Amino acid sequence: MIAAAYDIRKAYHDSDQIIEVLLGTCLEVDEHDFICITGKSGCGKSTLLHLLGLLDAPDTGEIHIRGQQISALSHDAAAIRNKDLGFVFQFHYLVEDLSAAENVALPVMIAGQSSAKALVRARELLSILGLQDRLNRYPNQLSGGEQQRVALARALANSPALVLADEPTGNLDPGHSTEVWDMMRKLNRELGQAFVIVTHDVEAAAKAPKRYELTSGVLISG
Amino acid sequence: MDRLEAFFLSRYLKAPKRNLFRFSFVFMVLGIVLSVGILSAGLNLFQGYESTLRSLLLDSFAHISVQAADGSLLDQDQANEVIAKLRTHEDVTSAIPTLHYSLMAQSDAKIRNANLKAYDFSLEFPYARYIENYRIPAEGEVIIGHYLAEELGLGIGQSISLIYPQLDRISPLGIYNGLQSYRIAGIYRSGYYENDRSIVIANLKDAEQLLLLPDTISKVELRIMNPEKASAAVRELTHLLDPGYLLISWDTYAHSLLQLVEMEKWLIFIVFAFLVLIAGFNVISAVSTIIIDKGNEIAVLKTLGASPRSIKRMFAWRVGLAALLAVITGQLFGAFLSWLVELQSFYRLKGDVYFIDSIQAGITPFNLGAVFVISTLLISLCIILPLKQIDRVQIISLFRRQT
Predict the structure, then answer these.
(1) Among residues A87, A18, A31, which one has the least CA distance to residue A56?
(2) Cβ–Cβ below 8 Å for A109 and B4
(3) What is the biggest distance separating any 2 CA atoms in chain A, rounded to whole angstroms?
(4) Cβ of A98 under 8 Å from any chain B Cβ?
């Protein structure tokens, strides 16, 4: 098992209101898994993904990465996010001042590799994702689908155990959306890359081998 | 600097237009350049004033004056004995007898007070450099200060009357009025206003006749190798003479004045350093804007595992390099401003207030270093303070704001 969430509870304080979004949620992710999580807006899908990605800490419950319990507040969390986890968000969040290749090279450089090595890895990944002729383009010179594929390449830069994707196609038109879904499935099928994807796209999620719906703060297998 | 920081810095340097010429950045840099420029120019001008004043005081006056301790005048034999003894000291470069007196200078109805300085021109005369087309004045000729000539409306070749009332010589006709007319042989202009306004340089013989003081001098003027150590030289030279002589170094009178000028220089430095601090507020604002502007970038870097320290250093290098260039440019701008002020001729100092009438700039390595260190420290502080916000950037709240 590469990642797991056990009995996760999370609530938000909004003025004098307490909004409980996760009420004892559990999820286990094995190697080569391709998991899609759907649910209504505001049901806590993104929150679950953020907790699993050590970007936020649960009120109660445990997060395990590669069998080790870990807290988002611990000193190791940043290193684990860098090496074991990859992130794709609804917005690409690419660094505007860096080219596509440089953006993809970032996690490798953060891990301590030289920029030359990191850029070699970035070119390799962008070629796999069909962006070999977009290496030196800046984010604003790429289409929405290309931007999201660069973000996907960045998530894969350090060969993470798990890629967490939060509405990766939520901002794309149907054509680009299909392009990104196909790419993620291909990576899972051909490279065995594990994905946990939160999405509103029920049709695309239906094609996933493992599907969950987040309802009333718990995951129900779909 | 780690690899990530070096990588980001190299990208910023390779594409400065894309990264450095942002609106807030440009005004931050302009603020630093202007404030450091004004600080540098202020210090350069005060340094120039101090140096000019010091060098004029050293060049226009004796480094050490030797006179009778009881204030009486010296006869020629005493003067010769003093000169012979003092010349034996290796630091003494010249020793000349002089007669100094206050008197009145007159041309037609205009009368001004003047300081007569009489020299034996057959010996050396150390102030020739201040006289245009200098030639040794013959008997019956004098050299007068530039402003004295201007006030009396006189020029070379014209005649000036020197009046010395002999108050202790009363005849049945009244006070004996020592009055002689002299031809003006030259105009003295040192830049030291008080001298230029009052000096009258005459032959020793002419002065003795006017003052009715034959074979008399008032003091021996010494010039020494290292005038900065005049007080120490006085202590050594005193031992060469009899106890009846008093040696006074130039800094006895000038020390307080120079100290005051130096204090004013550093006060101006402190006041102008506040301008850099105000420019620093602009830096705080620019860095805060960049942090807000780059909030997503910071969140992404944190998500990808970069430490807040590393992210802070990335921004610090980027802003710091621009600020460093701005400080250096400011110093160059300050030197340029000083040069312009030195070059201009429409404003001159009031000599009767500031002792000198010309504005000179002085650039010293120490002052350059002081401006650089203070400016860099203040600006660095203003860069580091807002960068602390990066520690407080919450990845989740930034992402949630976007969705």
Answers:
(1) A87
(2) yes
(3) 53
(4) yes
What is the pairing mode between strands B174-188 and B159-171? antiparallel
Q: Inter-chain contact B301–A83, Cβ cutoff 8 Å?
A: no
Quickly state the pLDDT bin for B386 (edges 50, 70, 90): very high
Which chain B residues have a beta carbon less than 8 Å from that of A106?
Answer: 4, 301, 304
Interface predicted TM-score (ipTM) of this complex, two decimals? 0.89
Amino acid occupying residue B391:
D
- For residue B74, give the 3-state DSSP assignment: strand
Q: Single out the residue of B325, B344, B274, B260 nearest to residue B42, CA to CA.
A: B274
Asked whether B296 and B260 are in contact (CB, 8 A), the reply is no
Please classify residue B116 by burial: count the beta carbons closer than 10 Å to its beta carbon, then call 0-12 exposed, 13-18 middle and 19+ buried.
buried
- Per-residue model confidence (pLDDT) at position B403: 55
Nearest CA in chain B to A75: B307
Cβ distance B40 to B329 under 8 Å? no
- The pLDDT of B120-134, averaged and rounded, is 86
**For testing contact with chain B, the best of A59, A83, A89 (most B CBs within 10 A):** A89
Nearest alpha carbon to residue A94 among A10, A162, A150: A150
DSSP B294-332: THHHHHHHHHTT--HHHHHHHHHHHHHHHHHHHHHHHHH
Question: Per-residue pLDDT for B163 more than 60?
Answer: yes
**Residue A134 near residue A147, CB atoms below 8 Å:** no
Mean local confidence (pLDDT), B101-120? 91
Of the partner residues B7, B304, B399, the one whose CB lies closest to the CB of residue A107: B304
d(CA B203, CA B212): 14
Give the separation between CA B376 and CA A42, rounded to whole angstroms: 49
User: Cβ of A79: how many Cβ atoms within 10 Å?
Assistant: 14
Minimal C-alpha gap between A102 and chain B (Å): 9
Report CA-CA distances (Å) from B235 to A75, A130, B78: 71, 90, 20
Nearest to B7 among A78, A87, A109 (CB): A109
Instruction: Find chain A residues with C-beta within 8 A of B15's C-beta.
Output: 97
Cα dihedral sign for B317, B321, B324, B330?
negative
Q: Which residues of B make CB contacts under 8 Å with A?
A: 3-4, 6-7, 11-12, 15, 18-19, 296-297, 299-307, 310, 395-396, 399-400, 402-403
Cβ proximity of A24 and A6 under 8 Å? no
Q: Is A26 on the interface with B (CB under 8 A)?
A: no
Task: Say if residues B382 and B276 touch (Cβ distance below 8 Å).
Answer: no
Length of chain B counted residue by residue: 403
Find all residues with CB under 8 Å of A119, minimum gap 6, and list them: A101, A102, A105
Residue percentage of chain B with pLDDT more than 90: 45
Mutation target to probe the A interface, by most A beta carbons within 10 A, among B290, B304, B309, B400 is: B304
Please tell me the distance from the alpha carbon of residue B343 to that of residue B45, in angstroms, as a whole number: 12
SS3 B344: coil
3-state class of A111 per DSSP?
A: coil
Alpha-carbon span B98 to B65, nearest angstrom: 10
B125-141: average pLDDT = 87
Q: CB distance A46–B403 less than 8 Å?
A: yes
